[in-house]
Amino acid sequence: MTDALQFVIDRYNYWIVIVLMMLGLYIVISRGNLVKKIVGLNIFQTSVFILYISMGKIAGGTAPIILGGHGDEGHGAEQAGHAAETAQAAQASALHADPSAMPDAPAANDLAAAAASSEPSTAGEAAGALHAAPSANDALAAAPQAHGFDIADPAAGSAPHAADVVHQAAEIIYSNPLPHVLILTAIVVGVATTAVGLALAVRIREAYGTIEEDELEAADDIAEFGHDFSAEPQAGAGA
Amino acid sequence: MISPGLAIPLSLAVPLAGFIAVWLLDKAPNLREAATLITGAVLLALTVMVFMAVGEGERPGYVLFNVIGDLPIAFSAEPLGAMFAVIASGLWLVNSIYSIGYMRGHHEKHQTRFYMCFAIAIASAMGVAYAANLFTLFVFYEVLTLSTFPLVTHKGDDAARAGGRVYLGVLMGTSIGLFLPAIVWIYAIAGGADFTPGGLLRTHVEDAGPVAWILLGLFAFGVGKAALMPAHPWLPNAMVAPTPVSAFLHAVAVVKAGVFSILKIVVYIFGIDFLKETGAATPYMWIAAVSILLASAIAMHKDNLKARLAYSTVSQLAYVTLGAMLATQMGVMGGAMQIAAHALGKMTLFMCAGAIMVGAHKTLVSELRGLGRTMPVTFGAFFLGAMSIVGLPPLAGSWPKFFLMIGAADAHELAIIGVLIISSILNVVYLLSIPIQAFYMAPETNERGRAAGLNEGDEKRSGVDWGHLHEAPLLCVLPPVITAVGALLLFFFADPLYQYLSPLMEAR
Amino acid sequence: MNALMSQLPVLPIVMPFIAGALTLLLPKGRPAWAWATFFSWLTFAACATLLATVAASGSISYHMGDWAPPIGIEYRIDLANALVLALVSGVAATVFPFAFESVKSEVDERQTPFFYAMMLICLTGMLGVTITGDAFNVFVFLEISSLSTYALVAMGARADRRALTAAFNYLVMGTLGATFFVIGLGLLYQATGTLNMADMHMKLVGHDNRVVEAGFAFILVGMGLKLAMFPMHVWMPGAYGYAPSAVSAFIAATATKVAVYVLIRFFYSIFGADFGFMQDAFHYVLMPLGIIGMFAASLVAVFQSDVKRMLAYSSVGQIGYMLLGISFGTKAGLTASIVHLVNHGLMKGALFMAVACVVLRFGDHHCSTFTGLARRMPFTAAAFLISGLSLIGVPVTIGFVSKWYLLQASFDAGFPWAAFLIVLSSLIALLYIGRVIELMFREPPKDAAAVKEAPLSMLIPMWILVAANVYFGVRTELTAGLAERAADALMSAAGAR
After folding, report:
1. Do C430 and B169 touch (CB under 8 A)?
2. Contact B176 C427 (CB under 8 A)
């Protein structure tokens, strides 16, 4: 019992996401008011934002800003620094690393692979599967500390300075910034959608004088057939 | 001199050139008709050239280009196709002469459109005749359907529209719904769709054997133009068309393209031996037999002359299907000869029906009593045509019946011989009765006679008074006479035709 | 020139995007139109060059800003998307010149710069979705094209205010679809830690777990909404029916095709055939929904009294064919799907253009408007006839080629009964198209009012598409030949049999 409770509590972020998602979807479907539909749509999208954000967050991790050592001038260092800046976190570069490019560091990759596949196989814990990936993140967050040197860019071998930089960077736990960046884009898209939706609602209000869906349908029916089909079905049955 | 290989694509190109010529000469009817006739003559010459070459054992072919994957639009002449091409182009020429008389005599509208569609129809009939694979056959089969649709609905009234709907609905429905899947299925099984002497499926017996009866059924009903019951309703409905259309398309081009396709598919795709071994054809043989009798029975009830002829056609077409489904050498020969003989005979009958309509404005069989005295030439031709359809010597129609009976005996289906005999008797009743009534019974002496343009004096005179004959225009009367004589001649030249078609029976 | 060639893959995105933004600065009316048309042609030229290059020398990989792929964004062009690129830009290159007269009569003149800007941005979005090799990029471009489409549909409000509600419904459904898609992407990212499609495929091999499965399901539903998979099609008749005619012609020929392409790309380039749930999705989701769509939507189309709505329902049915083709899970099925994707784009484009010509002259797209059209606008009527026959699948048209490949695929995959369902449903197309054709050719016009044929600026682009309908019906190397190679590449990359 406590295990089950623990299981639920551990994944509280997902519950929030699911509740928000269903709430939003329900509002979109059930509300007839166009503005309320847009509100529902926003709640629905927000749940996805939270999904992405919580997925990149690592407990105890900090913002992905490289601390120290950025003054190195060596060519190899530049390369390594380049990689570090791009991925902006050692663990992200582990995720992106090309296996063939790091012959001497298979461990981190295998770890990622193992974590992704290490889902509980029993049906009872099926929900845990959803959590398998985050645990992969956790494992990878730990990885830099264990194999800090291994996961450095291949350039590290030829440029010890660069290796130092990455090594220093690797000792700090960073959150994965990529989902956050992605969701920034999604937020922009969401804002644009909301704007277009609201603009349409305004235009509909101008054209029809209402933004209630059933009234809109009735207006269209009257315009096309000269009769409102949705109104007073009893009267229609009686006649 | 043009080589036979080149003559094949030319026989498609020439009608298309005629199509353009007719279009350009819209404003000059005489030149327009001349263009049609010249096209017809050139086309006939080309097909005869191919016919001769095939008779000498050549198999001229022409590959246009690959369309889908390795499936080309390709042509290849073999005896059956060459014969069909000659019949179609020859009768088209005759029919063009007749159309000119009929369309002018009847003051039809949109004559240019009429001749244009005719040109496309004959071009696609040539495509069907020379098709070297199922794919090419199907392409031209569909073009034929579409190009004849404006002809069927030529009158543009409600009846024409309703008839046209049934026409297009049944033909497109069966061809897209059954014929096309069958072709693709064959392609999937055999990896090709070429017509192969001895049968394409012969080398794929283990794949095709279990589904052979389904495939054959898809073809038998999918080729809706063969009008095997119950896929026949388009044919009577197409009779709303002007008579030259009925005569040519529904005695020659369209229906013959249908039964020709069936015969060609049975011989070159399935192969006679394959069908004999699997016995897949037996159910369809019985359906064809039922179709023969049922259509004859319906024809007896029809008072409208064209409707009666239409049902007679349904019945006669089933002879060809029957011949194919007997799966014997003689059956196939009978079917092939039936294509030629029936084309001549039925063409004659339809053109006579048109001549009667133009000359006497009569469409019902019951109105024709005694009309033979004023239109002896027309009814003489009608008589010969009817005799040929019934299968009486000395007319061409007797040979196919003969070979079909031999084929049925070979297949040990004695009941089929009975069916053929009963059918001939029915034919006598509903076809031969028409000219006999027209010649031997007294004409009706009521308003109907006057409506036909005869005055009281005419009716009292005997039929030998040539001065008071009331025939249709010469251009309407001459063509049926030509075809009737053709049917007569074919009786005596059946052996060359038999020899010509004999490669069909070789199972290589 | 060499420098230009090396940047070629990015040109189809950059050119219309920048041109679209600049359109807003142009004076209304003709200048905006001429500018947009010019760039649509340039874009088509770029896409055609890409297709030729890819067909000749294999796929191209372009690295955005020179960042190496798994980290940077990659544009990856192989035959499959080069074909779709050529289709989308080709349709655009014919619709843009076509649009001028149509837009003049249907859209407020002050709005024309916005209209053409939206069209270019919409084109950018669709090309971007197609060209990119980055999964998240697909979402971004998808929303770029969708947002501009919502606005374009709403511009039909001048003729019919129902365009507004149609656009709103489209917006709600489209956003739901896109969001579902993003959820699916998020789950896939959690499982793999990468967004590059090729990289994702490598990392997914052998990882058949619930996260991946859920991601797959979300993506399937999301794209299903975007491509109007049968029960999720309700936005489509409204959006196509009330949009300005030129917009209908453009999006009907391209938008859903791009979504189908994305589905194919995700199925084969990201998941691959060794996932058990793919087969389940094929046989228990795509195949039944495809078949039901083929019949239900086509039957609904028969009873529509509005030609544009009829064509929209017909599109839902035609998408059923594509889904059915995919659902066979074989190379032949995939080929058939891609062939039909391209062909259907061409025929629907031509059909909607013919309707646009009618709307220009009569201001209406009700069935009865088409009565006796053959005598008044013979070229428009003939265009409708030929592309309608193509939709039915008559030989010598591209519709026949599609049917042939679909039938072949269904026999090949061991579903002979599916072949009969395909031909049966195309007979329903005979009903609804035949009805309009009969009205056009077999009925006299309702009134004696003199009506001019559509202007040449509309007839020429329309007839180019109609000619394509016939040309690709007899010469199929460019469509089916390339589609076959594309399917081959997709299947072998997916590690299928």
Report:
1. yes
2. yes
Contacts of C405 in chain B (CB under 8 A): 68
What pTM did the predictor assign?
0.84
What B451-458 contacts at long range (C-beta under 8 Å, 24+ apart), as own/partner pairs, is B451/B361, B452/B360, B452/B361, B452/B362, B452/B371, B453/B360, B453/B361, B454/B374, B458/B374
508 residues of chain B, pLDDT tens digit each: 678 778 888 888 888 888 888 888 878 878 888 888 888 899 888 888 888 888 887 788 888 887 777 788 888 888 888 889 988 888 888 888 888 877 777 777 777 888 888 888 889 999 999 998 899 999 999 999 888 888 888 877 788 888 888 888 888 889 888 999 999 988 888 888 888 887 888 888 777 778 888 888 888 888 888 888 888 888 888 888 887 787 777 777 888 899 999 988 988 888 888 888 888 888 888 999 999 999 988 988 888 888 888 888 889 889 999 988 888 888 888 888 888 888 888 888 888 888 888 777 778 887 877 777 778 888 888 888 888 888 888 888 888 888 889 888 888 888 888 988 898 888 888 888 888 888 887 766 544 444 444 444 444 433 334 455 667 777 778 888 888 888 888 888 888 888 888 887 765 4
Are residues C168 and A200, on separate chains, in Cβ contact within 8 Å? yes
DSSP labels, C313-375: HHHHHHHHHHHHHHHT-SHHHHHHHHHHHHHHHHHHHHHHHHHHHHHHHHS--BGGGGTTHHH
**Helix extents (H) in chain A:** 2-10, 12-30, 34-56, 75-87, 90-96, 106-117, 128-147, 155-158, 160-170, 177-208, 213-225, 233-238
Facing C143 at nearest CB: one of A51, A119, A189: A189
What's the complex ipTM? 0.88
Give the N- to C-terminal CA distance of chain C in Å, as an integer.
Answer: 42
**CA dihedral sign of residues B103, B108, B109, B114:** negative
Q: Which of C121, C128, C97 is closest to C30 using CA atoms?
A: C97
Q: Which among C70, C154, C175 has the least Cβ separation from residue A98?
A: C70
